Structures are given as structure tokens and as C-alpha cells.
């Protein structure tokens, strides 16, 4: 079978797409990177030259509107890896061109945009993949295997305490200048949308969907210092999105869930993650104090079954992303997150936010 010919949007000389997403894709011989698209002519040409070195063949450079790369007749599939405020402008031309696509989480600035992407993709009959790679981690696969096999019996309850630590400088009293968009209103990159969103996809992949949620949210760090690369404070901003989020919920299975996420605390002396899953016959615990173990899509926490350590050897973030690319090549049999999963998780996030704002249980 011929390789999937890929056009990559947002593949600049540096950054997430260049260091993680593209390298894991081009190592898979079922894909062939043939074009890149960035915001400017210079950056597009620099990216194409860099990828030519990486792949050993010519790469077409595009810049400006993504309609150009999307309408390249040689491109079968377009990967979009730009910041969430630009997702819509980048992705809609791809969908209109009828190209299968990858979109990085959180797949738009809000649920409205995500639903728009899904509806348009379905209208075109497109195959989609979303950057929610937590379900591909070796530890999570093992947890799902244990639960599905009946190792702990019927799941009755689960609880999570998770930390997005100060050292990462995303949400809380310090924000890295390069991450500033994550601290601004209506950009689609708040803690609940990014960190918790990733975790919710992993959670529901293992334990199933929520039937209802009841949340308490708060901004306990009302201001943040914006820190540049040399550690100097550039300015101080008001924090507008919740940095502490706690919610309980009833799963469709009947199990009870209790989840607490907090950000801004320094890591020393704190557990990054404690996730317990209690069944009728036993218990699973995921825990670790290494940064950033609460981000299970990035780092594998330790796994315990009935108090005994289960030796599981994972490959880390790159391996998880590579597994997602591989699953997409399997067509309808692929077990990867799709735009419909993004709508589902976005809907859950909106319900948690609404519950926190109105102080009531929200049914899903």
C-alpha cells in the first residue's frame, strides 16, 4: 500500500510539532511528509529545508492560508499543529478541501468550534485524529486490561488528586512568556481545557463516560508574573481562568468519581498524581511525584494492583504519539481519538465549567 502523503501545518524550525509530532510521524514508513505550511515565506522555506534533511527528499513549502497546502493534489492528509486560537482558520480550509486530518488538542477554542469541525468533517466523510495520546500509554493500556479482565471486579468508585506544578509555568502565579496565551481568556488553553482535558479523555477511555458532574472552581492565584526565558519578570497579569478545580460525578456505569486538580504549587514534597480505582474485588493505584506525572499522556506514573507494584515499561511521550499515528493507518479499526472524541470531552469540560459557575449538578 502506498504511504499516506502528509502536509504539515505549523511545522516551524522549532517547537512542539518539530521536536515531537513530525519526527514520530516520519519514522513511520506508512507516512511520507511532502509539504509544510507556516505563516511566512522565510519560515516555510527554512522548515522545508530542515525537513528535506530529515527525510532525504524535497518538501514543498507553503505559507499564509492553509488552503494552499490543503489543495495540493499530492497531499492526502493534513496535520494541523498550531496554537488553539488559530485552529479554526487553519483547519476549515483543510476540511473544505476534503482532506483527512490531524488536529492538536484542544481542537478549537471552544465547544462551538469543535462541533463545527466535527459536523464539517462528517459532511465530507473525512477520517480524523486528535492529539489525545494518553490512551496509548503503556500504563493506561495495562490499567484498562486489568479492569476489562475483571481483576478488581466491578468498579465502584475512583478518585484523583493531580497537580500542574509551578515549575512548568503554565497556570498559577508564574507563566512563561512563551505560554502566555494559556493564561488569557477565551483562547481555549486554560488548565481545564488542556491538562484536565487530556486526562478526561484517558479517564473516560478506561472507565467510561460521565452521566452527571458537580463542580467547585476557584482562582486562588488572582495574578501571575509573566517570566521570560532568562527568568526575568516581564509584567504581571490578572488570572481569569480557574487554577483549582474539584468535581464529583456519577459515571454511566454507576461508579462515583471524585477529581481534584490544582496548579501553581511548587513540586517539592508534593505528589503529582494519586489516582485510585476501587473495585469490588480489589484496587488499582497510579501515583508518582516526578514532574509532570499528572500528565499521564506525557509521563507514566507507577502502577499498583492491590498494593503490589506492577512492572510496566513505557516509552514516554514520543512512543505514545507514535502509537497514535500507527493506529490511524489502520482505518476504521484504529483505536485513536477522533474529532467525535474531542466533541465529547469538550462537552464534559463545558459541563464542569457550567456547574462551577452556577453551583449545581449538570447532567450530560
From TrEMBL:
One of the record's GO molecular function terms: oxidoreductase activity
Gene3D superfamilies: Dihydrodipicolinate Reductase, domain 2, NAD(P)-binding Rossmann-like Domain
Identification of the protein by name: Gfo/Idh/MocA-like oxidoreductase N-terminal domain-containing protein
Keyword terms: Oxidoreductase
Source species of the chain: Collybiopsis confluens
Top-level taxon of the source organism: Eukaryota
Matches recorded under InterPro entries: Gal80p-like_C (IPR055080), Gfo/Idh/MocA-like_OxRdtase_N (IPR000683), Gfo/Idh/MocA_oxidrdct_glycsds (IPR050463), NAD(P)-bd_dom_sf (IPR036291)
Chain ranges passing through the membrane: none
Domain Gal80p-like C-terminal: from-to ranges: 139-287
Gfo/Idh/MocA-like oxidoreductase N-terminal domain span: 4-131
